[in-house]
Write a structure and sequence with these properties.
The complex is a heterodimer of chains A (235) and B (219). Chain A is of the alpha+beta class. In chain A, 25% of the residues lie in helices and 24% in strands. Helix content of chain B is 63%, strand content 0%.
């Protein structure tokens, strides 16, 4: 090896080592939106959106595949299970022609959908329950949602828990506002009186204890999303 | 012209793979900490002896569940890219001929090598080139695990959008078993691999600085 090629070799080696060191700095699990991890999250979100087919249905499962009610995890943010305020009603707003205020009785008069699909939690467990409710697409139609609203935000009375969704996932035929679980009225541990349920998202996207659905032109975050979990979180 | 025992592309992808697999295993184990069970809720698999046992945090990467997921899904692309570079080179260069296991050529030698290594037979099998039959079998098996670990990972990532893949692997929870099972197999391989390298240190020189294949090993 001549002197100059050796110098080039050493310079390349140093540059490579520097890049590796920078790469290390750019991967911080506590700041997953920054550096290389943040860049790759944006890549992965494009990948997720490309894979998502709005017309593909998750397989509907049989009653024999239901998880026993006591085994279906019950998650909340508040210390105690939150109880709905007296006179609770869901508000539907944002970019809509007809803002709505819907009681559970109003929702039960709308077309009813039952879905029984596998639930996928970000933690890695899966479980199955059947959910009764109204398709979000039905709510969007009733409210006259503006097609310019590309995002839907769901808010709750559970310590400010919320999540924002892409419109396509929100309007999926297996995305419903559920008031019933396993044939019974929704229990307080699972989000009574009304929760979001969907076949196409991870569990933390399915806001329980709903208070509001807003069709928005902008994407907001979410309780876990703002803490570093993926925003798209499709399955 | 003598061929290098380990061409530079094999050396580069080998060491890149070590780094990438370490990141994938560490972040994967941190994800497992969040639910260290196999099987769906309420129907965890009875045969799995480590139900509820968290992997040691010292072996994990990412710090917390969301951090580990970002590490895992970021480095998965690099892991796949590195594997693709290696596989394209393996077949384009003809290296596959002296590395992959072909039963008719290698089974006898593999069996004789096992008997010799276990001290059950005195005479060593005749040298057959870069790798003996048992090495070819092992490295081919490890290569076969790569698509399995990627596909089972994809099935867990997108069980609804990739329904045929997920069903082929037996469903979401079985895909988790396969994914963890491959990790266990790779960990076992790594232990044996490192022991063998310690017993034959010149292979480490082959894989780092690179040297020509020794004449007595040319097949």
């Amino acid at each position: 090896m001549s002197g100059s090629t050796r110098r080039v070799f050493l310079a390349n080696g140093l540059r490579g080592a520097g890049l590796v060191a920078l790469g290390g700095l750019a991967c911080d699990g506590n700041r997953p939106r920054a550096g290389f991890l943040g860049l790759m999250e944006r890549v992965n979100e494009r990948f997720e959106r490309a894979l998502f087919d709005p017309s593909r249905l998750a397989p509907e499962l049989g009653e024999d595949e239901e998880t026993a009610l006591e085994d279906f995890p019950k998650y909340k943010i508040s210390k105690e299970f939150p109880v709905a305020p007296a006179g609770w009603a869901l508000s539907v707003g944002g970019l809509v022609a007809r803002p709505l205020t819907l009681s559970v009785a109003d929702l039960q008069r709308m077309p009813r959908t039952r879905t029984r699909v596998r639930h996928h939690c970000v933690e890695g467990w899966s479980a199955v329950a059947s959910w009764d409710g109204v398709r979000l697409a039905e709510i969007a139609r009733a409210a006259g949602a503006d097609p310019r609203a590309r995002y839907v935000e769901f808010r709750s009375f559970d310590a400010g828990y919320f999540s924002s969704w892409d419109l396509e996932s929100a309007l999926h035929p297996q995305t419903i506002l559920a008031y019933g679980m396993d044939g019974d009225p929704l229990h307080v541990e699972h989000g009574a009186p009304l929760r979001l349920y969907s076949a196409v998202k991870l569990g933390y996207k399915m806001v329980k204890y709903l208070t509001a659905v807003n069709f928005l032109p902008v994407r907001t975050g979410g309780y876990w999303e703002d803490r570093g979990y993926e925003w798209f979180a499709g399955v | 012209m003598p061929r290098p025992a380990q061409p530079w592309l094999v050396r580069a992808t080998h060491w890149a793979n070590l780094v990438l697999l370490t990141v994938m295993a560490g972040s994967g184990l941190r994800i497992l900490v969040a639910y260290p069970h196999l099987g769906p809720k309420g129907a965890e698999y009875g045969w799995y002896p480590l139900q509820g046992v968290s992997p040691p945090l010292a072996l994990t990467v990412g710090g917390w569940l969301a951090g580990a997921r970002h590490w895992h899904f970021a480095f998965a692309w690099l892991f796949v890219a590195n594997a693709v570079v290696y596989l394209v080179y393996l077949f384009a260069s003809g290296e596959w001929r002296r590395r992959l296991f072909f039963p008719r050529r290698d089974a006898r030698n593999a069996w004789d090598t096992v008997l010799h290594d276990l001290r059950l037979r005195k005479e060593a099998p005749p040298p057959v080139g870069l790798y003996n039959g048992m090495q070819r079998l092992t490295y081919t098996a490890v290569l076969a695990m790569a698509p399995l670990v990627v596909l089972s990972g994809l099935a867990m990532y997108k069980p609804v959008q990739l329904p045929r893949l997920t069903a082929l692997l037996g469903g979401y929870d079985v895909a988790r078993v396969i994914h963890l099972g491959v990790l266990a197999a790779l960990a076992l391989f790594t232990v044996v691999h490192v022991v063998q390298v310690l017993l034959h240190p010149r292979t480490l020189a082959d894989m780092t600085v690179g040297r020509d294949e020794r004449p007595e090993e040319v097949s």
